[in-house]
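Lab channel / #folding
Pinned by the channel admin:
"Please post every new chain as: sequence first, then the structure tokens as a reply. Keep commentary short and put observations after the output so the thread stays searchable."

First post following the new format, from NK:
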Amino acid sequence: MRLSRYKLKKLLCIGVFHTMTLMDLFKKWIVIMVISVFFLSGCSLAELLSDLGNQPNLSGPSSKTYTVKTIVDGDTIILSDGRKVRYIGINTPERDQFFYAEATDFNKRLVEGEEIRLEVDSVQEDEFGRTLAYVFVGDIFVNLEMIRAGWALFYDDPDNNRFDELLSKTLSAAKKNHVGMWQESLYKITISEVLANPPGEDVKNLNGEWVLLRNTGKEPISMEGFILKDQSNHRYVFHEFTLKINGEVRIHTGTGKNTSETLYWGSDEPIWNNSGDTVFLYDQAIQLISSKSW
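Reply from TO:
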């Protein structure tokens, strides 16, 4: 039987349709819709391809290695090519701060003279021209090890956050294990409450800022030489003062007359950052008694 040209064409089309899976049709529909949206929004195909090509490479560590020439501190190094590299996601003590020497020395033992690999994230350079990177020596994730050893804080960078969850969990573990700067004092004092953002302008209400400490131990505690500090280098050193059993003392930022329940820092500027900070309380041997973050 001879088929007309029209019937033959119809049968061929039906055959092709039946050989296509529903997934094929769905994929084609998705492609058509995506392209349509870009054209309707005024984007050309060339612009679309260009944007895709400019995305940062987050697929994994680079195979290229660099030699570390100088250790600046616990979170910054200088490479043999002169580039300065700042570790992403961590913050270590600055010069003249507690544990600066320990953090710098630990970083030195990890990377000095070593061949390292760098992984970048969304923002690859800071305002000081430093390369922002996750640093690896072989299989060792240096940023992570600085926190694990207790010599670095987790720093929440909104632009570079690929390993935030891992770094944050590692910090919690370091605190729990009392390693590095988290070595625990025998004194039992808790930071019960912090008011970092009092009503009105902070600078006009310095005594509206305060930290409340409570003795949870079984005996009075002489606090002479104890240190209260923030994440920066603001320090309050206790003079002759005894905290009673179950007693509380409130330390205000401004000036006033000290009593058995109220002390004054004597600062002429706010201490505690409204957006986020950490209170550290150390004993006279620079062992951590308590800390509180927000």
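NK: Residues 186 and 231 are 23 Å apart (CA to CA).
TO: also worth noting, The first helix runs from residue 5 to 19.
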